[in-house]
Amino acid sequence: MHDTESLLKLLPGCEPTDYDSAADHEAWLRGRRFTLGASDIATAMGASGYKSAARLSLEKRGKAEPKPIPPGFAKWGHRLEPQILEVWAEENDLSPVYHNTRTVRCKREGLSFLTCTPDGLWPSETARAEDGSIVQSRSVELVQVKTKGTWDDWKDPEKGIPVEYQIQIQAELAVTGAEFHNLVWLDLIPREVHWVRIPRVEAFIQRMVLAAATFWECVQAGELPPVEATKDAYQALALAFPQVEEKTVELEDGDAYADELTAIRDELKLLEDRERVIKSLVIRTLEDARIGLMPSGRYFSTPLISETTVSCKHCGGELYTKAPQRQVRLQKARKKKHQKPIATLQLAALESRGILAAQTDESGEAPPNDEESEG
Q: Rounded to 5 degrees, what angle do the CA atoms 277, 280, 281 make?
C-alpha cells in the first residue's frame, strides 16, 4: 500500500474517496461539484478574493460553470508542490513528508458533504508492517503549499496570513480530525521557503462548520446565500435569473432604498471629484518629476502613458484613440531607496490658492449656455 494512502487512513475524522487530482484531474473537478471542499468553505463564508458565495452556490447546483482559477501563482503552485515539500523537509531536518493528491471525506454524521485534499502529510514516530506500509503514527500533520504572498506581508501583524487561507487550514483540520497544520509557502522573489505550524482552533471550527452546513442547506434547497457586497456576487445574479419577463412587482419599502441609492450616487460624485483634485495637485506639484515621496515611505508614481488606440475586440476595427495621459499611482513603501529628493514641497500650498469648481446656481444645476437659453 502506498504510504500516502496508509497515512490518510490513520487520520481519525475522514476516509479516502476515489477522487485523485493526479490520476484523473477532470473527474476530480467534476467530483467537487457534489461536495464542499476546504477552499469552498472560505468562499461560502465570504472570504474568497476571486469568487462569491452566490457564484459558488450556482456552480454546486449546476447553473454555472466553475470560475477558472487565475493563472500564474496557482498553476506553478500545483506543479511545484512536490519540490517545495521536499525542500521544506530537507531544510528543517524533518522526517519524510508525503505529497498528496487524493480527496478525503468527513466521517462525522451529517457532514459527509465536507471534503478536502491536503497538499502533504507529515507523520511522526511511524511504525510499518511487513509489507512496508505505515500502520501506526503518533500523529499525522497536514501540509498546505502556497506560492502567493510574501514573508514580509504575512509576518506583519496588521496583515498576517490571508483570512481565506486560515479558513482553508481550519477546514482541513475539521474534515480530517488532525491536530496541526503546516502552512508552507515559497516566497518567489527571494526564492525562500517559509513555514508556520498552526494548531486546531476548536471554537472557530464549530462556527465554521455551522456556516458551511447553512450554506449547503441553501444549495440543496436551490436557494441563494445571503446578499454579498462584491462585484462577482452581483454579476452572478445574471446566471441565477437568466430570463426576464414583462411582469411588475410592487415594492412597499422601495422608496427608502431608492433615496439611499440616490444619496450614494451623489456622494460618489463628490468623492470622484475630490480624487481628480488630489491627482491634479500631485501632478502640478511634481511638474516633470516622476516620484513624490512621503515621510511614511509611501510614494506617488506619475508615469506618462503615451497615446493608445482602442480597437473592437470582435472585429478588430479601430474605435477611438486615447490621448496621452499622466497617471497617479499610490505605491507602498519599498525596500530599495529612492533617489535623493531635489526639493521638499507641500500639496496644500497649491490647494490654498483655491479649487476651480463647476459653477452652479442655488438649485445645484449648472447654468445653461447662451444657445440653450435662447432655445
A: 85
